[in-house]
C-alpha cells in the first residue's frame, strides 16, 4: 500500500536500522524503544492486521517466526529470554496498519503487560 509507513520502509523510501532481512520479512529497530532490545519484524507483503492472515499466508507466518528467531540470536536474548508482542486494532495500540511483531528483551520484563 502506497501510504503505509512500513511498506515505504520495505521499499527503502524511509530509512530504518535493519537488523535482519529476507525475501519475505524485514526486521528493524523501533524508533521509540521500550526495552534495550526492541526490534520490529514485519512481513514485506502488506497485511493490515493479525486478523487479516489467511491460510495462504502460512509461508509468510513461518518466515516471520524464523526472522524472530534470528533477531533473538543476533541481539543475544535467545537464551536469556524475550517477548514477542502483536497488537491488533486501535484498542490494542496498533499504530501502523501493517502487521508487525515487537521483539522485546535485554532486561527483565514485567507481567502482566499493559
Describe the SSE topology:
Elements lengths: L4 H6 L7 E4 L3 E5 L7 E7 L14 H17 L7 E4 L15 E5 L9
Antiparallel strand pairs: 1-2, 2-3, 3-5, 4-5
Describe the structure.
The protein has 2 helices and 5 strands. The chain is of the alpha+beta class and 114 residues long. The chain has one domain: HIT-like (HIT family, subunit A), CATH 3.30.428. β2 (25-29) and β3 (37-43) form a beta hairpin. The N and C termini lie far apart (30 Å).
Q: What is the number of helical segments per DSSP (H or I, 4+ residues)? A: 2
Approximately how much beta-strand content do the residues carry? 15-25%
Which second-level CATH architecture applies?
A: 2-Layer Sandwich
Tally of structural domains: 1
Task: Give the C-alpha Rg.
Answer: 14 Å
What pattern of helices and strands is seen along the backbone?
Answer: HEEEHEE
Shape: globular
CATH topology name = HIT family, subunit A
Amino acid at each position: 500500500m502506497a501510504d503505509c509507513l512500513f511498506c515505504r520502509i520495505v521499499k527503502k523510501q524511509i530509512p530504518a536500522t535493519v537488523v535482519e532481512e529476507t525475501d519475505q520479512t524485514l526486521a528493524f529497530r523501533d524508533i521509540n524503544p521500550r526495552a534495550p532490545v526492541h526490534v520490529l519484524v514485519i512481513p514485506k507483503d502488506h497485511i493490515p492486521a493479525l486478523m487479516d492472515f489467511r491460510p495462504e499466508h502460512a509461508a509468510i507466518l513461518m518466515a516471520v517466526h524464523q526472522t524472530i528467531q534470528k533477531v533473538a540470536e543476533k541481539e543475544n536474548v535467545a537464551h536469556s529470554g524475550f517477548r514477542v508482542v502483536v497488537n491488533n486494532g486501535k484498542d490494542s495500540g496498533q499504530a501502523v496498519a501493517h502487521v508487525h511483531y515487537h521483539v522485546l528483551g535485554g532486561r527483565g520484563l514485567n507481567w502482566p503487560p499493559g
